Predict the 3D structure of the following.
Amino acid sequence: MSNHLESSQSLYLRKHAENPIDWWYWCDEALENAKENNKPIFLSIGYSSCHWCTVMEGEAFSDNAIADYLNANFVPIKVDREERPDIDSIYMQALQMMTGQGGWPLNIFLNPDDLIPFYGGTYFPVQPKYGRPGFLETLQAIRRFYDSEPEKLTSFKTEILRNLQQSALLPVNQEDILTKDLLAQGIDANSAAIQPNDPGRPSFPMIPYSTIALLGSRYHTEHISYPHA
């Protein structure tokens, strides 16, 4: 039985379409579903060539007991980081703040009302190993915390949000106002990401780079030069 990922354009998301987990992609309907049912969001971000993403898909995400508990107590959402690097960037920063490290799969739990994370990690094994508890045990502990420790949850979210906001602050400078030259720099940088690779320097351009480069090509001015593909 397929889930909401069956018709996704992302090959990575479609790879999870037959999981017993009732995966959603990132959309308003999924977020509203979590809020209306007061269920924390389990957000899992990965990409096609990620080794541990593939391992977790074949282990925890294919386990029926884990799927039953996730479906009943959380709203599971899958994101392809190559399709949504904006979402990946925000929650990777949060994970690094919480654990001191990051990586993929990026598995993080969000409060449904404000989408602020309160717990996260990377690879979770099905059974306890590598000094980590089993994934089902982790899910049960997180749901207990969500239900029984609202004050601690609020305090932790407040700290995470404050740190994220501080990391996003940019110095106010009138010289930084968007100009044609600054726009040209951005388009050139994104265009370079999709050029043929230099020897020994493989790159993995994400969809937004290609989109910005395409849009930029439609607004050529004498101030903007584009690299040749």
